[in-house]
Amino acid sequence: MVDKFLQFMGLIKRAGKLLEGYNKCEEAIRRNRVHFVIMSQDVSKNTWEKFLNYNNKYKVPVVKTIYTGEEIGNAIGSSEIKVVGVTDKNMGKALMNLLKKNEKL
Predict the structure, then answer these.
(1) How does pLDDT run along the chain (105 residues), one tens digit per residue?
(2) Residue 18: its H or E element
(3) Full-model pTM
């Protein structure tokens, strides 16, 4: 089965609307430039809690996915990425909808 969520994440990367990594996402959240943050299932507890605090403070949706950092990295052409942020509002909403559909399967 082809995973549409990971495919779309790769498309967002190619469109230049995806930030990779903890530091880039953290800085962009503070500047209100990120609309959706995706975390791998193997992200550390401290990182997860820190981004949940950002969710509460800056109202940016943050989700922990069923995907590993390696799976997310492969989808966007990197080795391993545990935190990514989407800078385009509509693409973020579409990615969130795909993630919800995957969870219902």
Answers:
(1) 358 999 999 999 999 999 999 999 999 999 999 999 999 999 999 999 999 999 999 999 999 999 999 999 999 999 899 999 999 999 999 999 998 887 654
(2) strand 18-20
(3) 0.90
